[in-house]
Amino acid sequence: MHPLTSQPLLDGYREDWDTPFDATVLPTVSGYHARLQAGATERYLYLYLEVDDAHFDPEPNTLHADSDRFDGSI
Q1: What confidence category does residue 62 fall into, taking pLDDT thresholds of 50, 70 and 90?
Q2: Is residue 6 a contact partner of residue 18, using CB atoms and an 8 Å limit?
Q3: How far is 42 from 26, CA to CA, in rounded Å?
Q4: Which of 39, 38, 36 is nearest to 5 (CA)?
Q5: Is the pLDDT assigned to residue 46 strictly greater than 60?
Q6: Which residues make beta-bridge pairs with 38?
């Protein structure tokens, strides 16, 4: 776990984490590559999880909500 000097912006990117990128590679059985990094301020614990998905499909322009499946962002 890394001490953070300020709270990172919770936007899905780790640019504002003030630590070097040395996330721990997680073992998976699904074939996805996943990395985890933990950081803490005086009060909060933050976890950064990154998963590589070769089949990522962002929301298409022609969306049919009743039949289409897609990956969305938080």
Answers
A1: low
A2: yes
A3: 26
A4: 39
A5: yes
A6: 47
Percentage helix, strand, coil, to 5, in the chain?
A: 0, 30, 70
**42 φ, ψ to 5°?**
-60, -25
- The token pair at 42 is 């005086």
Q: State the Cα–Cα distance between residues 72 and 64, nearest whole angstrom.
A: 14
Q: Do the beta carbons of residue 52 and residue 35 sit within 8 Å?
A: no
b/e map 7-42, b = 16+ CB within 10 Å:
ebeeeeebeebebeeebeeeeeeeeeebeebebeee
